[in-house]
Amino acid sequence: MKTILHTANSRGHANHGWLDSRHTFSFADYFNAERIHFGALRVLNDDTVAPSMGFGTHPHNNMEIISIPLEGDLEHKDSMGTISVIQQGDIQVMSAGTGVTHSEKNRNNDQEVKFLQIWVIPNKQNVTPRYNQISIANLIKENELTQILSPNEHDQGVWIQQEAWFSMGSFSKHTHTQYHLNGNNHGVYAFVLKGEITIEDQQLNTRDGYALWEINEINISANEGSQLLLMEVPMIELG
Questions:
Q1: Do 125 and 64 form a contact (C-beta atoms < 8 A)?
Q2: Are 220 and 188 in contact (CB under 8 A)?
Q3: Residues of the chain with pLDDT under 70
Q4: What b/e sequence results for 24-57 when a residue is b if at least 16 CB atoms lie within 10 Å of its CB, and e otherwise?
Q5: Would you say the C-alpha torsion 64, 180, 221, 223 has a positive or negative sign?
Q6: Residue 238, pLDDT score
Q7: Neighbours of 108 (CB within 10 A)
Q8: Domain range holding 187?
Q9: What percent of the chain lies above the pLDDT cut of 70?
Q10: Is-contact 61 101, C-beta < 8 A?
Q11: Which of 50, 125, 198, 234 sits in a 20 to 30 Å window from 175, CA-based?
Q12: Which helix (H) or strand (E) holds 93?
């Protein structure tokens, strides 16, 4: 087993006034040669957007972009004709493929929006762009891990163009559980959304990240009131 610990306060930080963002991996003006990616996981941004503010229209291509709102309402518009609002309890995926432009805006004028912006490197290039969002609030089962993303269109949750699986857990009591990896040469990036969680004897607190690979399963001990996001990805190398 190999591991890397990224404590919450070690992340990159950019405060643009309207946007306060914490970067687990190198992004925009934040660069750390030791934090470019974890396998196919390229970006994990923890974003807070001020009321009525947002990201203007901008392009992407050949990237799987996942948004998970934690608080507030985020309005999405894109060149595919999509206009939607995502909020806590939803997950959104945009396969940028051959190219797409989009904007994201805090729909509310009296509260912040907090959301995770996650990029996964796809295993297929130049696919037709695609958008999807679903509510996962009714999927999440208390005190266990629930799959919310996979590479399979007909599985539970959303799907992307990569052999990746995301799971979330919300724990109302002290819980011991295991996560079994789906593929060989895969790793798991654990991100603590809230509370205290121990993974393979490593204690983690709110917004800590912990990468594990060369392992088939991981042991998790979650304290009462904790929330966890697990991201399993293939351990690809960037060219």
A1: no
A2: no
A3: none
A4: bbbbeebeeeebebbbbbbbbbbbbbbeeebbee
A5: positive
A6: 86
A7: 16
A8: 145-234
A9: 100
A10: no
A11: 234
A12: strand 90-95
